[in-house]
Design a protein that fits this description.
With about 300 residues, the chain is mainly alpha-helical. The protein is built from 13 helices and 2 strands. It has one domain: MetI-like (MetI-like fold, Orthogonal Bundle). A two-stranded antiparallel ribbon has the order 1-2. A hairpin with a 2-residue loop joins strand 1 (about 50-55) and strand 2. Helix 2 packs across helix 13 (about 275-305), helix 4 packs across helix 8 (about 165-195) and helix 5 crosses helix 8. The chain starts with a helix and ends with a helix.
Length: about 300
């Protein structure tokens, strides 16, 4: 007796799909997310909605208050740190995008020095932030800094690069751009290497010069990489902490106090755990909202470009 059509059509079940194997395969990831993502987030939300005090080495929770969120609008330093962070991001993100793209194009077109330049361009990104801070402190220090010694040797007055509000802000922007431009360079350079040479040759056959090819062909093809780099730099700008803390400690005054520094001060110096958690939660929500808006704009631009 021949097997029924249903029996013949049923494929053999692979032991690698479904069942217990599928459950055990995702279990480590689920446990990792529960321990290192979900649980800390729940605790931060709980702390943000509580008045947390430390007494006798124990946490005392007074749950069920929104006062921590209301305090942010009365905290002048919280508002100024948010403004300072926005200024910092608006300066560092475009600069790293432009410099990283320019560096990638130059390295891509340099047949002789390309490999050497590629390795040198990546060097700042692999250096630890503490080492970066030490390097730039030795350059910008008003007393032992190489830059001021060079100015004195030229007969020019020494400058307090880290002592004035404008100078300190410009200095941390410079350090951040120097440190993280290689990240943009790597993303853009990889995208450049993925462009089909036939596309560029077709543009040259049509009579386009190198400048037109870059602006009308290469740059649109680099748009996804540039968008990804911008999103990464946006998140990194909000998280920026090491160099600013080691170089200026948020000073002079509060001129370079970013939200990361302010949160650190609230948590560890003032021990206002509930308020620090509330401020951290608002920053996280603001970053997620900014990323969603950026992704929506990117998707709209991509669809409009495909339609045209």
């Amino acid at each position: 007796m021949s097997p029924t059509p249903t029996a013949r059509a049923r494929p053999a079940r692979s032991p690698l799909h479904g069942g217990r194997f599928g459950l055990f395969a995702v279990l480590p990831f689920v446990l990792f997310m529960l321990v290192f993502a979900v649980y800390p987030l729940v605790q931060v939300v709980r702390m943000a909605l509580s008045d947390v005090q430390i007494q006798g080495g124990r946490f005392l929770w007074d749950f069920g208050t929104l006062a921590n969120f209301a305090r942010m609008f009365d905290d002048a330093l919280a508002m100024s740190s948010a403004v300072t962070t926005v200024i910092f991001i608006l300066a560092t993100v475009p600069l790293t995008l432009v410099l990283g793209t320019l560096l990638a194009v130059l390295v891509d077109r340099s047949a002789l020095f390309g490999p050497i330049a590629r390795n040198l361009a990546l060097w700042p990104a692999v250096v630890a932030p503490v080492v970066v801070s030490l390097i730039w402190l030795l350059i910008l220090s008003p007393t032992v800094g190489v830059l001021n010694k060079a100015l004195i040797d030229l007969g020019l007055p020494a400058q307090g690069w880290l002592g004035s509000e404008v100078g300190a802000m410009a200095s941390i922007i410079l350090v951040d751009v120097w440190h993280w431009t290689p990240v943009v360079f790597l993303l853009v350079y990889t995208a450049l290497k993925g462009i089909d040479d036939q596309i560029l040759e077709a543009a040259r056959v049509d009579g386009a010069n190198e400048r037109q090819i870059f602006w009308r062909v290469v740059l649109p093809l680099l748009a996804p990489a540039l968008g990804a780099a911008a999103l990464i730099r946006l998140v990194m700008g909000v998280k920026a902490f090491d160099e600013m803390y080691l170089l200026t400690r948020g000073g002079p005054g509060d001129a370079t106090t970013l939200v990361s520094l302010h949160i650190r001060n609230v948590f560890f110096d003032r021990l206002e755990l509930g308020y620090g958690a509330a401020f951290s939660l608002v920053v996280v929500v603001a970053v997620i909202a900014g990323l969603l808006v950026a992704l929506a704009v990117r998707r709209t631009v991509r669809h409009s470009g495909a339609a045209s």
